[in-house]
Amino acid sequence: MLAQDKFRPSPAAIILCLFLAALVSAAMRLSDLLPMHDWWQVASNPDLNSYVQVLVHDSVLPRFLIALVAGGALGLSGTIFQQVLRTPLADPSTLGVSAGAYLALALATLWFPALALSVRELIALAGGLVAFALVFLIAWPHRLSPVALILAGLVVTFVCGAVSAAVSLSYSLGMTGLFVWTSGSLTQNDWSAVSRLFPCTLFGCVAAAFLTRPLELLSLNDEGARSLGLPLFYVRLLAIVLAVLLAAFTVSAVGVIGFVGFAAPFIARAAGARRLPHRMVASVAIGAILLLAADEALQQAARFMREIPAGAATGLLGAPLIAIFLRRLPVVETPTAPIAENRNHRPLLYLAITAAVLLVVIWVSLSLGPSLGGWSFASPSQMQSLLIWRLPRLAAAASAGILFALSGTIIQRMTSNPMASPEVIGVSTGAALGILLLVLLAPSFTPLSQLAAAAAGAIVSLIAVLLMGYRSRYNPDHVLLFGIAINTAFAALIAVLLGTGLPRVFGVMQWMAGSTYSTTPMQATIAVTVAAIILPIAPFFTRWLDLLPLGAASSKALGLSTSASRAALLLLSAISAAAATLLIGPLSFVGLMAPHIARTLGFQRALPHMIAAALTGAAITTCADFIGRVALFPNQLPVGIVATLIGGPYFLWLMRKQVR
């Protein structure tokens, strides 16, 4: 073991090798265009009559520098977020900046194309700032606590993504370019982006240097920091504003580039940068190197294939690095307090009310609808013909809501992490990638082969998470971190495939948005059967779910085998999420929202919490399926998009209401 450790390359050595490889790649590409003795002349005073020199001066060199500057800005932004929020799961996209920027660009492209063309960066910046302002307003009553900020940011990200998906589905023509932009683009035609982003990044570095001492004190608990005279609220506010500005200016310059802000601080910590000043400097350097290396890799690959987005390249490069460095980084369990602490003293009454609401929603969904004569309820004779069309999709939607809610409840209680959801362990994204590959590569396919492809992708994700979790005895933070890496890698591949613009991609987009359009009676029967099997099994795990949030030491003292229990719970959660994903797509938003809504209503113990979450998830998806069917009749919206638009604002309202 000691010999293996001796010859194992350190994270710093790997990053240095990446940097050297990127420099060699850049030098090789530049040598193909110009002889070495002309490099300095091109950089300082190019010959405007030479196409090659103009190309190098106005495109190649700015692209090289913008990769360094943007990567450094994202790395610093991620470090500040993680320090302020005290979690390694935070990054610039946590507060909805990227999703808000993309939504603003999509809307401007459709409604104000001339404006979007002339001030594209400003529109993206405005969208990111508006999204953050919404997160800020939601988290303000909670004194900008880390949990409230991250939860509000996740919900705002989901809502912005749902609106963007609805716009893309409604105006599919001409939207292909936005798929590429949403994954980032470092292509440059002049020095304008560098000249705008570099001063902002330099200002951010100077401001972060002045905030280093107060930010270091945030490593203490709140009481300890206050005892040293630190104004926690204002320090967190200033630091978060600085981090958001860095991320927003980066998005406005080069588009949405994810994962760098998450990976750079992670790798810096794994490389041994323990103190915050060292971690800041290391994160800036590592972020710059990661983005540069990813960009050089995709430019080399572009010689043999179509160029892929820069954000996808960073995901493909950074995810394996996270997997390599994960076991080097000790992660201490820090159970997070839930948002709602009130206990429901009449759980049976509330459960009965929730069940009654669900039954009413089901009846309305089956019987009410628009017709040539206006809105009307179907008569008993009409119901027989309508049930053939409405009942399968309703059963699939309700079953998927139950399964996603159960999966989310298990993950959140198992990890004591309110940011966890089924998508974190990679099952939904893996299933989406599997079916997307089948659609694009197979000349023809059947519903059975679609289910098999989605199952294969979900199983690959599950096996990867279980193998990595076994190494760390299923430490919750390790599982979540590795799940993020898997999701990022698979999402990057999905972005690459969606960016191809092939006609067959459009149908997959509807499935990924949570569509129940083509649900067959057989699929609905499978959905109900799986839900009927998992629902009776889940209560047998409630004791584990009540004990695990107490921490590993307390759980072991009470006779619980934490490794075995976490593995079993992770497997049950993954199976639940995979079964739902196979039917209606990666509708993981319900897995995040339903457990929180149930907890906010006062269901704290595991068993009533699971039942209430399942009923809530079924109610959300059933209502979403009905609204998606009738809102734009005769056109339809996928249930996933509508569920996000329903559950997101309601959850944000609950967050505001809870502290009044």
Structure explained in plain terms:
This protein is mostly helical. Among the domains are: 2-13 and 65-328, Orthogonal Bundle (ABC transporter involved in vitamin B12 uptake, BtuC), CATH 1.10.3470.10; 405-589, ABC transporter involved in vitamin B12 uptake, BtuC, CATH 1.10.3470.10. Helices cover 74% and strands 1% of the residues. The protein is built from 29 helices and two strands. It has helices spanning 2-7, 11-33, 39-44, 51-85, 97-111, 113-118, 120-139, 146-170, 176-181, 192-210, 212-217, 222-227, 232-254, 260-270, 276-301, 310-325, 347-367, 380-415, 427-441, 447-471, 476-498, 505-512, 521-537, 542-547, 552-557, 562-584, 589-600, 606-630, 639-658; strands at 368-371, 374-377. A two-stranded antiparallel sheet has the order 1-2. A hairpin with a 2-residue loop joins β1 and β2 (374-377). α2 (11-33) crosses α15 (276-301), α4 (51-85) runs parallel beside α10 and α10 packs antiparallel against α13. Mean pLDDT is 78; it is low at 1-7 and 331-341.
Defining traits:
660 residues, mainly alpha, ABC transporter involved in vitamin B12 uptake, BtuC, 29 helices
What's the quick description here?
The protein has about 650 residues and is mainly alpha-helical.
What would you call the shape?
globular
Q: Enter the CATH topology name of the domain at 2-13 and 65-328.
A: ABC transporter involved in vitamin B12 uptake, BtuC
Give the biggest beta sheet: 2 strands, antiparallel
The CATH architecture assignment of the domain at 2-13 and 65-328 turns out to be Orthogonal Bundle
Report the average pLDDT across residues.
78
CATH class of the domain at 2-13 and 65-328: Mainly Alpha
Q: Look at the helices and sheets and give the structural class.
A: mainly alpha
Distance between the termini: 56 Å
Could you give the order of strands across the largest sheet?
1-2
Strand content: under 5%
- How many β-strand runs? 2
Q: Please estimate the helix content.
A: over 70%
Radius of gyration, Cα only, in angstroms?
25 Å
